[in-house]
Amino acid sequence: LGPEKTSFFQALGITTKISRGTIEILSDVQLIKTGDKVGASEATLLNMLNISPFSFGLIIQQVYDNGSIYSPEVLDITEDALHAR
């Protein structure tokens, strides 16, 4: 990001410096904690840095294979169980 964007970092209390025409963050920053709502300033900054402020997953209800339906527990296979086969 160019030097004109330093106000976004300052608004969030992130210490920066300008180095060779770009913004350099001086220390590690945890901008958002798990469970916190993402504010407008945080969302804007993360978007400018091409960082998605969320994660997603999948909860399996059933497994269908070759005409049979299984519970999701059939996928709970350990590495040891695979080696034993």
TrEMBL record:
Domain of life: Eukaryota
Keywords assigned: Ribonucleoprotein, Ribosomal protein
Gene Ontology terms: biological process: cytoplasmic translation; ribosomal large subunit assembly
Gene Ontology molecular function terms on file: large ribosomal subunit rRNA binding; structural constituent of ribosome
Record-level GO cellular component terms: cytosolic large ribosomal subunit
Gene3D superfamilies per UniProt: 3.90.105.20
Entry's family note: Belongs to the universal ribosomal protein uL10 family.
Main function: Ribosomal protein P0 is the functional equivalent of E.coli protein L10.
PANTHER family: 60S ACIDIC RIBOSOMAL PROTEIN P0 (PTHR45699), LARGE RIBOSOMAL SUBUNIT PROTEIN UL10 (PTHR45699:SF3)
Entry protein name: Large ribosomal subunit protein uL10
